Amino acid sequence: MKVECNEEGIKKTSQIIKEGGIVVFPTDTVYGIGCNPYNENAVKKIYEIKSREKTKSLPVLASSIEIVKQITVIDEFTEKIVKKYWPGPLTLILKLRDKNLKKSLNLEDKIAVRIPNSVCTLKLLNKCNLLVGTSANVSGDSSFTNPQECMKNVKNYDVFVDGGTITSKGESTIIEIENEKIHVIREGALKKEDIVI
Prior knowledge:
Strand content: 15-25%
Distance between the termini: 43 Å
Shape: globular
Number of strands: 12
Helix content: 25-40%
Largest sheet: 7 strands, mixed
Oligomer: single chain
């Protein structure tokens, strides 16, 4: 099923997520694929669709810093960073405190989290708070910014939210902060020198 990124489309999509469905949706960087992160079966499906190794953990998208604080530990330094760069193309690896997520996403003690700067994704997140948010492509292949190409190449999802073509500078930059030092795990749309307090 394909829906538009409007009130009706978002409502249908959030219902499908609650029922354990898989959704492809636009973000501020590329088209993403996701599900309810607490649903183990749905999480399994994402791995299958992407042919992703089980050892590679899945990132989540959140609707607000408050929600992120409920599932992770954020110190003062990290909070300054997130307040400056969220919503935006910056993913943070944070210490996980939510035991249920640890189990459903098969995580150790850390999780990758981001608040995307996309009106469409945020509307969806406002209905479900958290969403697995990884690029909608087979692992190792290029990610998609064009909805038609994405629909043609990605299979076995339940709903596709069409947000039109995405203009972005690439995927999100992933960082981890240790003792107030920023370590870049993957450089994407944000360059290391751009990340300053």
